[in-house]
Amino acid sequence: MKKRTWLSALLAVALLVSMLVVPSASAAGNSAFTDITDPDQANAAEMLRLLGVVNGTGGGAFRPQGTLTRGEFCKMTVEIMGRGDEEPAQRSRTIFTDVSSTHWARGYINLAASITVGGSAGGDGESSTAGTRLIMGVGDGSFQPDRVITCGEAVTILMRVLGYGDGDVAGGLNWYDGYMGLASSAGLLDKLNLTGASTISRGQAAILFYNLLFAKTKGSDSLYLTGLGCKVEDGGILLDVNATLAGSNTAVKTTTGTYKTDRAGLDENLEGMQGDVVLDKNDKLLAFQPKENIISRAVNVAEWEATWIRLLDGEQIQIQPDTRTFQSGEEKTYKDVYQDGRPGDSMTIYYDINGKIDYLFLPSTSFTGKAMVARNQPSGNPFTELTNGDSNYKIYKNGMPATVGDIRQYDVATYDSASKILYISDLKLTGIYENVSPSPKAPVSITVLGRAFDVLPEATNDLQNFKIGDMMTLLLTNDGKVAGVVTTAAAKGNAVGYVESITEDGKATVQLLDSVLGKVEGKTSYRKDSATKMMGELVTVSSNKQGQLTLTRLTGGSSSGVTGKLDVAARTLGGTPLADNVAVYEKVGSSKLQPVKYSQITAVSVPASKILYASKDYAGRYNVLVLDDVTGDLYTYGFMSKGTMTTPSSMGEIVNSTVIVTTSDKNGETKLELVGGVEVPRNAIGGVVASLNTLQDKNKIAGYVFLKELDGVHRSAFDMKAKTVTTTDMVLPISDNVVCYNKTTKQWFTAEDPMDALNQARAFSDNITIYYDRTPEDGGKVRMVVVQ
Questions:
Q1: How much is the pTM?
Q2: What average pLDDT does the chain have?
């Protein structure tokens, strides 16, 4: 196996300082042996277990720090040569005086002593040469099978397995020096800092045998493992270490296929890397080896846009929309995923040899590692146990860079050893303990507020203190798993969401603002008209009775706890700063609550009366804002017209007024019809927002607006880079979803990117009419463009 090398200095300078050059294949591995903490040793031991070379010491233990005897090493050598089935026939022989007939390793030692390597048979005038025996005694007829083996002895045996004999090595001060030199060149000593006289531990021996598998045999370009029926193939990009495949309990998915495996598991930190798959003779996966010199950078994103991302430290990175992006085990493009990106989400950027972005990998939000809870008021970092001795790790809390001083009691931490980031969450949820599966003594999931939450092993003891029907507060990881449970007197959650639906019998579904928490369900007291009035409302959610929800409506202004105005440029609310990863939501009346980007707020300021809700994080910064019809981006804009629909009733058919908006998307003309008695002027151009309330399966109108017209605009007034239109009176931003219509051809301009459709319109004519909703200082934008 080759030594790992770094990129040239020239390339390193061309790349960003924070990029990482990923180390070798065994840098991350899991094992069925529960007592191995070193990832290299764990990966090596697991592969040897799958090949039948080792089986541990019983009870899932490997004893990696334990020593290895000469007899034990003989057994491992015979097994890795695939000759273990020959061992029984060697038990009756006596070769060494101190290997008795009752010694457990007698057959393995005798077999190893009978195998020779090197040498040649005479012929065509050439003299024959004797081979070198795989193992030899200590010179007095004995073998000392129970003596701890030295590195020099072990390396000598394995180099002979590769086909090298005494005639292939140079002399040295010690008898094993020649073999040690050859072994170093062959990669056999990679990741081992040992001399020939050193004793080797069981864990170090595992790495030694692992290196043997990937070393080349004498006089060949073939790896040793290919002689065992194994093979190494291009595995593409590793997508999922916990994939599913029919007929297999575990599988690993890459871009080249999905492979069955008997491994205890690959490390999730390998996901996203390019590499080779190592397969056994049955095509089951043994290992995944990353390519050399992978250049990657793990980042946390504060803001996602169509062609760039902004990191939490303010750095902006340009990304092409068609950049390959891997998410949830599937290949997509960046333009497919950026709209769903959340502030604080992590992503790994992979670069090619020229330092350009090659592809992106978005990790799964699911966490399967160990979590810890800060049980007491911390004095220092209570989570050092998670970092495995790492000292140069970073801390992120709720998606923001943080320090040890930001850790609070009942915070939950997880650790990503690949990016060396300690992730901390203060996510909490309070409610009635409604159900548990499969049992209270062995909980895998519990139900609170009508939603099932996965339970991590760390929370099992906590749950023993509660019974069904008790009030409890869940302490959650940043991906929504239960890491701990405490009483409501110790800590309380504050779940906020919007009412998505209420059935006729009063069962409500509430979508919580934190998407990790998802939806909660339960019975309420709302029926008919009162239920209708609650649709789309922002509410706090609690429960004091099993199966029921208590919903308290939140309103704007002082009753929402907000004072002062939002200064958009300064990023302050009432003088208090916003968090870099502030999450912004918006709704119009009884419409669905939708996430918007902070950059969509183009108004100079937003009054408190237009802020339905705001919450602060642990540092006193506003980290959540819910706006009341501020951006104008929730409307569907186009040509407005009146319509009707009939509804059957006991009195006969009832005719209801509707509003129809004719507009377009990338595929052409579309129509949106909503129920509502709006007086629509002739040839009106405007926009509507759908309510969550319906009539005969058709949504009602939550809000509407008529656009203002400005004609005689020249194409030169458009700044496509800044996305603005300059008139004699103002500078108007152009909506990212602007729609464009050709009055001459009576057709819509369509394109994947609305800006491309706008350029088509500008190219067709210099006689342009723009339609906008508000003045620029109030957040107005150009919503529609008509040319003729």
A1: 0.68
A2: 88
